Give the backbone structure.
Amino acid sequence: MSDSGMGAFWANLKALPRTFLGSFVRHGAPTSHRARSQSVFSNVFLHIHATRVHPHSLRLTTTWGLGVSLVAQFLILTVTGILLMVYYNPGLDQAYASMKDIHYVVPAGRLIRNIHRWAAHMMVFCVILHMTRVFYTSAYKAPREFNWVLGMGLFVLTLALSFSGYLLPWDQLAYWAIVIGANIAASPNEVIHAIGLPEAFNIGDIVRRILLGANHVGQDALLRFYLLHVIVLPIAMVFIIAAHIWRIRKDGGLARPGGTPSPAGKGAGSMTPAAQPPSAAPSKTYGLMCLVKGRSPCTGQDPDETVPAWPALLRAELFVFMLNMLICLVLGVFFDAPLREIANPGVPENPAKAPWYFLGLQEMVSYSALIGGVVVPTLAVIGLALIPYLDREAEPAGLWFSGARGKVVTFWSMVVGAILAVLSVAIPVNYGWLRNWFPDIPQLVIIAINPGSLVTLAYMAWSLIVIARTKSTRLGAVALFSCFLVGFVILTYVGTYLRGPNWDFYWRQSDWPIH
Amino acid sequence: MSGRLDPDPISRRDFLGLAGLWTAGAAILGSLVAMARLPVPRVLPEASTRFRAGSPLAFPAGTTTLLPERQVRIVSTDRGIAAMSLVCTHLGCIVGEAPNGFACPCHGSKFDAQGRVIGGPAPRPLRWLHVSQAADGALVVDTAREVSPDVFFQPMNVG
Ligand code: HEM
Ligand code: FES
């Protein structure tokens, strides 16, 4: 009795490495297509991919690797961010000093900080490019409408993460960016005051107090932004990214011309297998796919049209990931993240500029805080999010610019958008604006009528004209998106390079007055 | 089939299930509301809005004095003493002196010497602040109390 018990024990002990490995890998070594597909299918992390992908999705010109770059950047930011948290201290008196320590004393601290900063810039840049590519390839069309909405959520979260991180060094850049940001959030007060309601109606004050934990930027604000930056926003980001990528799989892979399988949950709508698994394939792996509602990604097609996700997709992802690491590393080694003087509530920098991705907004805010800082951005985000619901034209998804007509509309919309954006800067710079012409003009008029609101209206009008002329909502959407894109680029350029001290206009930085 | 005269429109099982769901929903909603109250501060631990600017003798008539750490400018005339806030009424940057008044570095608001808006996005003139005198004679400026620009404070003589 005890003898056989001991025997079994020894045998189990000897087999331990194999049985342990087998218990968590659950299938053989990933050397065959079958085993690899099985591991993609059964591993909780890998199964966010489909087991097989269409070669169109792997082509560089389909995605430019942007979505995967965003995931890579988010991972890099998470890891470097946790490392920075080892030394960073969100106390009013310590924050700046701890940043200095990280930059000058902590081993590898400067490199990690630089990489964190550069990855953040790259993420903002890539999220704009990714949205642009998804838009122009019509990849937001049914059944992907809601994934586009999730994407808008990710877009806003990315900007919010960047901005909340901006306060943490507690230097001059940080302090004044948050003062301005918080006061933009409070800018509805402008209207309350302009129509003469008593102070008690200042909803802006309440918003600002929730954001800052006080009426002024101080310790409570620093702690709140720290909390947002390291916990609240990243957690939200992880969940939405997971849903975003999971949906790509459930929508049958990336949008492509000529045949997107019907969406999960629609179509057959039953739990019965929609198609027989290809006879050559092991029924276990592919049979499970048939339990998924609707049709599996490979039904109705020649199974040979798709390629296994492992290795084709995983290899591409690894490549994009390594490329992002490389770029961050090179930028981080050669270019230091800025750290200005410690925050000084008495003197802003002159000019005091927001981070680059907000300089277009700063340009509009320099006419009206409420319109430029709240109304236009909110309208833009809501408008973008609604695109898939307002343009429901069925058309070949995955085709850049929707073909020749789309290219023409894109081109002319960019021309119109650029002219209007340039005018919106050139006219006020050369001739002044309402207050210079009519000094006694009511404040409400100044708030409502300014270059930002006028250009937004003109863009909307242009896109309606395009819809009427082309009888196509898709081309209308193309017109609007192209206008906003080019307007954003131009205003960002103006804010970055052509604005100097006191936000005055200068062609060259060398023309700035010396003081 | 059932012999009841007044058949239930909804079965007991469904009713209990729905009641349970609604209770859970109400409980979650209630907790969310309660939690949302937490980030709204009730006490604002901030420095006093009043500060002592010094003896009136330090501000002889006809001079203006900048108090940068208070973001206030003291203007002294024969009619008395007044204090102007240097916080831009647009989005809260600190204005700097410019040839014909004040200019804001952040979005280019321009003000004249009286603080009236002459250009840029600022929605209101720079604020003039309430000035008073403490028992020992020192001037006291209250940054939370606005007064009209033609109000001047006549300090009592101090030894
Ligand atoms: C943190 C931000 C984001 C991450 C990590 C992310 C990630 C991804 C990934 C990995 C893909 C796969 C294909 C590709 O690389 O293009 C993808 C596709 C997609 N993304 Fe994003 N994305 C983000 C933001 C956005 C934004 C801002 C939008 C639009 C508002 C968006 C809308 C979409 C849509 C609709 C698809 C499906 C495209 C297709 O089927 O061809 N995403 N995303
Ligand atoms: S804060 Fe002064 S112009 Fe914006």
